[in-house]
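This part of the workshop introduces the protein records we will be handling. Each record describes a single protein and holds just a pair of labelled lines. Instead of coordinates, the fold is spelled out as a row of discrete tokens. To make this concrete, we reproduce a full record directly below:
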Amino acid sequence: MTRPREREEVPLPVAAPRTLLPIGAFAQAVGLSASALRQYGESGLLIPTEIDGRTGYRYYAPDQQRRAIWIRRLRDAGLGLGKIGAILDGDAAEAERLLDAWLTDAAERQSAATALVADLKLSLRARVENNPVHRTTAGFDGAVLANAIEQVTAASGIDGFHSVLMDITDGEAAVVATDRYLLLARLAVSRRVSGPPARVSFTPGSVAAWLRSRRRVDLVVESPIGRNGRKTMHAHFCDDAGHRRELERERDLLPSVHALLQDRSGAPTRIVFPRTEVLRVSRSTGSLSLIASEGEARLHSDAGVAAGSADGRAVSLELSAATLTRIAEAAVGPALSCDVDEPGAAVVWRAPSQPDFVALAMPQSR
């Protein structure tokens, strides 16, 4: 008689033990000190996973490392613990608002620090120099700058506005030209800038031809403080070989393109056309009508109609055909977009293929 098989015992599964890191190992892994981790734990910003009730030792889970690294990076950037907690624990929209506000504040503090350092350096030099100068330097690729100068000069040439402006602000240099009705600019031709903000208007002449054959050039702007009665600004280009090109300065009559763009308010209507179509219909003998509604846009002239897309409120305005031709010819790429703000405000044209290109043109009275 066969004996029944004994039932095999199947062991119950055992949960794998969690791998917790003691405070020292965790601190080394995330680049923080143990004292900082204790502070974050007491504030509730980064609470240990476990605390040994007998020894008080703190243990952290590996999945807490990401939060710890974000806390370290935000602290290194200058944010306080309360704001860090609100960013990491709040909803996404509030976190973005706090980050944007902090970024704006950081930029303002950087601007103030740059001005402070420039003024202090000038004061220190004044102890030993008779007439120290504010010195600003912007570095360029010569060919890129030459192209930018030639590109914006399509807006210059009448009523004394025949100069080009180099507008050097915090961290970037723009090239601007205008005839009072049309303004063309390249906003970020260089980001290699040192020294305080500076502006210099000059006659373009053959400057672009001189620049085109240079790989790297520096624009140097020197403004004496006028202690000995001399306050005349001096500006020149200098290439890698030490060759200089003095600039024939003009009166600074041009507006700040950055201020013009920042002064705009509200949500503009964004309109996009094929650039070739804009060129086709803008080569007319009169003005053009720009009409946009319900997602569609039309540009009408006696040369035909150009179709495009629109996003925003309904728009109806008149534009100068000659001005729009100059904008479309100066722009590059397959598309041309414009932002239309409140009635009577300048229309802002851009070339998506060249993000730092901008043109401001006033609409015509109807």
Remarks:
- The longest helix spans residues 92-126.
- The first strand starts at residue 21 and ends at 22.
- Residues 168 and 198 are 5 Å apart (CA to CA).
